[in-house]
Amino acid sequence: MKVLLLDQAFYPDVVSVAQHASGLSRMLVARGHEVTVVASQRGYDDPSMRFHLRETWHGVQIVRVRCTGFGKGAKWRRAADFATFLGSCCIQLMMLGRFDLVVSMTAPPLLSVPAALFAWLWGGRLVVWVMDLNPDEAIAVGWLRNGSLTAKFLEALLRFSLRRAENIVVLDRFMRDRVAQKGIAPEKVAVIPPWSHDKAVRYDPAGRQTFRKQHGLEGKYVVMYSGNHSPCHPLETLLEAAARLGGQPEIAFCFVGGGSEFGKVRRFAEERSLRNIVCVPYQPLERLSASLSAADLHVVVMGDALVGIVHPCKIYNILALGIPFLYIGPEQSHVGEVLKLTREIQRTQRAFRHGEVDALAQSILDWARRGPHRSDEATLLAGRYSEAVLAGGFVDLLENVTVERDTKATVPVNQVSTER
Length: 420
Hints:
It is built from 16 helices and 14 strands. With 420 residues, it is of the alpha/beta class. The protein is globular, with a radius of gyration of 21 Å. The chain starts with a strand and ends in a 19-residue tail after the last helix.
């Protein structure tokens, strides 16, 4: 079948959404399908980076469109970049012709709207892959006022695209419930978490030593937050704990990634003259094992109001490495459920609410005194979220979507879910 995938970020971009879109596209090609991707010419986190407008990668035809590159320094800059990408995307879609299947991701927000119009006008079925939910996210972080005309208009656009979709793929049951609250039939929604990178991410002792040496972390107990730094993942509690532990020279805090809040972490360290905080930009996929393996303790963060809106996909790679992690966020969340899945994780105090700085700092100090260790139980749990299991199930779903309803396989779509 001919498949069109729409997403702002794609290979060789290194952000998580690009990596998952790239992995799914490669698997579709391996199954014998013809895949075209429409993405941005600019880097997602670094808009000064530009990629080829057209190229073929592992059999995937990539078409990139031009847009502004103002960056994430202000809301108007981000909005302008989103708007120009969506406009360029619409123009490009008019020149592509019909596809059997259109898969729309949600970066930038409401990309599913032109995807729905394209599938409606040209024919073909639509699947919306909800990586984050907007305008819900914009409202939750205070970028948009709930109940405003703008919020109502954007909500109407989202519901239009979700209703036009043949199927909707969400990342956890909390996100499924939010989508259902928008009046979407539950049988249209499948829960497929974003998988770990089986081939690219493994515990890498040599890479661990190289990364730690490169960034002055040798001989330290390293607490790491790796991934997108955004208001959806408030880091104030972790940063304050780092400040409390500033007099412990054996403990270092490493922040790896990018996003709108990445600069705030640097400024926090500079303003308080903290020498125990190290900031490192996003790492390419081929060096991800080294950076993640360099940690002795990972940190996963979820904003209280963001449950069911965004998803902490970093947790799957952490589980695959078997490195301990702490969680800062609401108990009723997907991470909270993962914490309960093994007896070992349940026995240890690893969950904290935002603002519990003293308890978090003390727990980090206790972990540091125990020294580094890894968990075989966690790596076994990670198998449930492997690329082979989840991406393979995703491709099965997409192949099933294009079959006429009266000849569909008898397995319901929502059985692809790994939720228990």
